[in-house]
Amino acid sequence: MILPIYAYGSPVLRQKAVEITPEHPGLEQLIADMYETMAGSNGIGLAAPQIGHAIRLFVVDGSEVEDIEPAGFRQTFINPVMVREYGDKWDLEEGCLSIPNVRENVSRHGTLLLRWQDEGFQTHEKEFSGMAARIIQHEYDHIEGVLFTDRISPLKRSLIKNRLNNISAGRVNVSYRMKFPKAR
User: Fold this and answer.
1) How many CB atoms lie within 10 A of CB 106?
2) For residue 39, which phi and psi values (nearest 5 degrees)?
3) Which of the four, 24, 44, 66, 124, has the lowest number of CB atoms within 10 Å?
4) Coil, strand or helix at 135
């Protein structure tokens, strides 16, 4: 089922998400719904807070991204822990399904070491670089209550303030369902 994306200004986007256990109710269906919602919104990543759940879960699908390693990168991350971010920082324009029609350059480390659990709650630890690292860093920020707009300069934030206010008020046109914190 395609779920609504929570818009900028929704309190759940600012909460630090909590860990979950294998007994989390409806987890298998939630993960399936997240993949369907992400695809239906033309996204490459979706964190649980973006659909109203303050839990440490995100999904990614970079299979359509050119030159991404690993090829066909599609994965579920449960209870992820950022062990380390390192390497040269590089800037790239980022956007977010919760902040539609806003794109800004964000500087991120080129490599990270991540520990997480898969759908079977098996623990993994792996290094990711390049676009895969960037997608993970963006989604990881969501479960920490951080948005990409927090990673841009105060001047740039002030320049997009009206656009952000319009999003939280529901004054934005998108091709996917959204849930707004203020009345439309």
Assistant:
1) 21
2) -65, -40
3) 66
4) helix
Distance, CA of 10 to CA of 168 (rounded, Å) = 7
Return the amino acid letter for 90.
W
Q: Which amino acid is at 124?
A: H
* Local structure of residue 18 (DSSP, 8 states): B
pLDDT in tens, 1-30: 999 999 999 999 999 999 999 999 999 999
Please name every residue paired with 113 in a beta bridge, in sequence order, or none if there are none.
84, 127
Active site members = 139
Contact of 181 with 168, CB cutoff 8 Å: yes
- Neighbouring-strand partners of residue 107: 91
Q: How far apart are CA 48 and CA 46, in angstroms?
A: 7
Q: Which amino acid would we find at residue 160?
A: I
**Angular region, 106: left φ>0, alpha ψ -120 to 50, beta rest:** beta
Global confidence as pTM: 0.96
Number of other CB atoms surrounding residue 170 within 10 Å:
15
Set out the domains of the chain in order of their start, with CATH numbers.
Answer: 5-179 (3.90.45.10)
